[in-house]
Amino acid sequence: RYVEAVGRPGDVLLGLSTSGNSANIIKAIEAARAQGMKVITLTGKDGGKMAGSADIEIRVPHFGYADRIQEIHIKVIHILMLLIEKEMVK
């Protein structure tokens, strides 16, 4: 509902799900698409139901413990933040 309320064309939704099957994230992706937003997903394993639903999918193809996938997700988020900050100061 939040995405429906505040999402605008050109905005970007970042959806995170270790399994790729989180129902609330899938609904947020659907809402973002309806709003004309871009979608980036961070998933794990085989991408689950979220596989192929994003403009950019960063998938950690690890089938072991979920915490390993989440550790990589954290690193990716930190890198994305750094890149965004660099662009904002230009």
UniProtKB/TrEMBL annotation:
Pfam families linked to this entry: SIS_2
Gene3D superfamilies listed in its UniProt record: Glucose-6-phosphate isomerase like protein, domain 1
GO MF assignments: carbohydrate derivative binding
Any Gene Ontology biological process: carbohydrate derivative metabolic process
Domain SIS stretches: 1-90
InterPro entries linked: GmhA/DiaA, SIS_dom, SIS_dom_sf, SIS_GmhA/DiaA_subfam
Protein name, UniProt field: SIS domain-containing protein
